């Protein structure tokens, strides 16, 4: 993001105390252990200080509890100072400051559902968020990400992470909180995003944003599931991966030009595809969308999905013609690419091969 944007984000936050943003909400409860998939292990709830514990003021209006689980987690930074006070007292003080600043903006309560201090203390943000998360079936509507407050849990991380990363203890608390929320709500570990993925903001900072792929991996490991983490592909990006996604969208009947530039037409085609696939139509190609977008292609197949695979092979230096016809030459290139990546060399472009091609 450019400097002016960053500065605007900082100013917005400082108006509130340092943060901008809005925070979100979540609520849930964990399913009984017996209902968990066998390949997962129960994630222990992190120690989360409730609004009562940090002496929050009462909300200005009743909190809205939606009768649906959130489907994603959105990571924020508060854009406030990178303090060196790692005490619990600082975490509570921060929580009170954010609540007051959000009241000052006319909001009914803290915007986000949870906050993590630089010292790694986790506190409840908006009232009832903890109760909702413990239940696992309901979501507290927050105010942290325009357009996505009904479907996302917002986590504010104290600090400004444009040029530095969060302290180890704070990151570790973030992994623990996300893993627990994923477990409670059945949110896939792949569905962790940064505020900038959906709104025009520098939040959660360049450095913290760049750590999100690792965060997804760390959360998946904590939850005990094996997942493919795909690159978040979205508006403003250009290149081979965008062109490949566009070809795959065309293969699903969307009408757009595969020009390698992710503009409004691509975002709209992505949203339309997501709606048709039963996904949240956000116009951003995250892991859940990639998994639905790819199509297994093999020798004898033809069309834009084949072209997408050929385009990615060609971009990696394989001598294939990007003609949309999966013949012997394409099959040979696929086998060779698979061998180079330690994948089964079967010449078929299935999910793991697609993942390697797009990553
Ligand atoms: Zn934010």
Automatic annotation (TrEMBL):
The lineage's top-level taxon is Bacteria
Every copy of the Peptidoglycan recognition protein family domain together lies at 46-199
- The signal peptide here is 1-30
Key word Glycoprotein present: no
The alphabetical list of record keywords is: Signal
Quote the Gene3D superfamilies the UniProt record gives: Peptidoglycan recognition protein-like, PGBD-like superfamily/PGBD
Q: Offer one Pfam family short name for this entry.
A: Amidase_2
Q: What is this protein called?
A: N-acetylmuramoyl-L-alanine amidase
